[in-house]
Structure formats: structure tokens, C-alpha cells
């Protein structure tokens, strides 16, 4: 009973954290809905494990735990690809920013800095 409460509290906390922090970014609504459905499926698995076994049997999977493992593999793959794509996008943004800053800070040949003689002889 205590483990069910802890697991459900963890799922709810993850869901709230995800929705709160990704609500301001460009996360697609389908990603939010998919994550929410996945988390609700986790709550159902904690409260009624027999339901997960029945779903697994209907899908042709032997046990409910196997179905959960397969779902976690797919979710991990999705998270990995999503993270990779986000990093690629950030790298592209940084490259564009650095190029723009280099162009902005560059000097034309006739605007070269001339040394001033400030030495004391």
C-alpha cells in the first residue's frame, strides 16, 4: 500500500513538472498528450496490475510486466531521439549566433586600429 502511494505521488510530480516546464517551450501538444497518457497508464498499472495483464494478453504479450518493459523501451527511444534533436537545434542556434556576433564585431580594412605611441622614452 505504501509503495502504491509513493509511486502515484512520483508519477503525479513528474507529470506536473513536465507540463509546467514544457508549457513555455515549443513542445508539441501531441508530446504533452502522449506523456500524460503514458503517466496515466503508469498509475493504472500501480493501482490495478490485473488490468495491465489483461491488456497485455489482448495485445498478444505474455505478461503485463513485459508490456510495461516494451513501453519503457519505446519511451526511452523517444526521449533519446527528442534529446538528440533538441541538442542539434541548440548547436545550430549557437552557430548562427556566433556567426552573427563575428560579423557584427568585425572591422572593415580601412577601420583598422592604429597603434598609438604611449610609451615613455
TL;DR of this structure?
This protein has 121 residues and is mainly α. It has helices at residues 2-22, 29-47, 49-59, 64-105. The protein has a domain at 28-103.
Instruction: Summarize the main sheet.
Output: none
Structural class: mainly alpha
How far apart are the first and last residues' alpha carbons, in Å?
87 Å
What would you report as the Rg, rounded to the nearest angstrom?
A: 27 Å
Count the strands?
A: 0
Order of helices and strands: HHHH
- Helicity, in percent? over 70%
pLDDT < 50 stretches: none
Globally, the shape reads elongated
Strand content: under 5%
Tally of contiguous helical segments? 4
Mean pLDDT: 83
Structure explained in plain terms:
With 121 residues, the chain is an all-alpha fold. It has a domain at 28-103. The protein is built from 4 helices and no strands. The protein has helices at residues 2-22, 29-47, 49-59, 64-105. The radius of gyration is 27 Å and the shape is elongated. It starts with a helix and ends in a 16-residue tail after the last helix.
For the structure shown, list the relevant keywords.
4 helices, elongated
Secondary structure elements and their pairing?
Layout (H helix, E strand, L loop, with lengths): L1 H21 L6 H19 L1 H11 L4 H42 L16
Helix pairs in contact: 1-2, 2-3, 3-4
